[in-house]
Each structure stands twice: as structure tokens, then as C-alpha cells.
Structure prediction request, 237 residues.
Amino acid sequence: MTHTPREMSFWEHLEELRHRLIVSMAVVLILSIVSYSFADWLIDAVSRPIDQVFFMGPTEAFSVRIKISLFAGFILSLPVIMYQIWQFIVPGLYAHEVKMVVPVVVFATLFFLGGAAFCFFLVLPVGIKFLMGFGTEKMKPLIAIGRYVSFVGWMTLSFGVVFEMPIVSFFLGRLGLLSSRKMRKGRRYAIVGILIVAAAATPSPDVFSQLMLAGPLYLLYEASVILVRLTGKAEAA
Prediction:
């Protein structure tokens, strides 16, 4: 039995999207509540590169626990979120395209986790040590835990999203919507776009944080060019 795209009205698409969003948000909420039990351990793990952190208001220590639990809940929910995305787009795909979605979803989850881990374990310790090195004998750091957790969280999530580029490029290439020739021709525009994305995605305005994201993003773009050239439908034609 072959699978053909199913016609859906605009309101049916909206209802389907609403259902998928509700399921995803419910799972994130449940896993965030579970993660709250480990909030102290998570805060210690995140703040390991810093000697000491402080909270600046009566409610900040509590709000940080909520914030870090939500970050953890989102990351733990990734397989479910990816599955809901798959279920949303499957009705509009042909049988040969549906077969691609399962490995794409699996690898998309792995690439996101790989990007987040790359940022957390390699980029952030080096970056934070570099930035802290600008202190002087009289200029000591006083790190607010709320802002620090937001910085680490958004950097980690940004790297996770950035590492999805090869997966998205592979999927578009297999559908014949993207070719390595187009990507090579648009490289100069891609570099400008990469710098804009890095500036928008990083939580702090310093150039170093933006370059920490822009560098890997450009390397992933070049890797995507090679991947599309090897696997893209337009390349075979």
C-alpha cells in the first residue's frame, strides 16, 4: 500500500498543529517538574567553570531553579518533540519521502544533543575562562546566577539548533529543493547570514560569544555543501 499526500484544509492544519504543540508542551512541563528535583545538582554542574555565583534578589534563587528545570525539561523532551514534528509533516509526504523522515528525526535529535554537548563541555569552559581573564586586581567578577544560567542555557540551545544544519540540508537535498551548486554560489550571502544569526542567537553582545557560534556554523555550512553534493537528488540528476 503506497502513501500519498493527504489533502487537509487550512483549519485542519491549524488543529493538527495545535494538538502537536499541546502534546509537546505537556511533555516539556512534566519533565521540567521531574528535573526540578535535580535543580541543585544542575546548578552546580552549570556553574562549575565559575568559582562562585550570587543571587541578587530574594526571588532569584527560586527563579533560577525554575529556569534551569525548564531548560532540562526541553532537552529531555527532544525525542517527543521531534516525533510530533514528524507526525505533523507526514500527511503531506509521499511514501519514499516518509521513509526518510524516521532517520532524519533520529539524527536530528542526536545532532542537537551533540551540538549542545559540544557547547557545554568544550566551548563554554574555554570561553568563560577567556572572558574572566579580563578582570584585574581591582576589577573582580560578581556573577549573578540568573544571568549566568540564561547565558549558558541560550548558548547551549543555540549550538544545538545550529548543529541541525546538515540534517536540514540533507532533507532538502533529497527532496531536490537544494543543490551544492546553489549553496556554493550563495556562500557570500551565507556568511553574512551566519554573522546575523550568531549576533541574534547569542545572549550577550560581546564579539567573542558571537564568534564562538559563527565559527562552528560556517564549518557546518561547508560540511552541508559536501553532504548535499554526495546525497542530493539534484546532484544525481
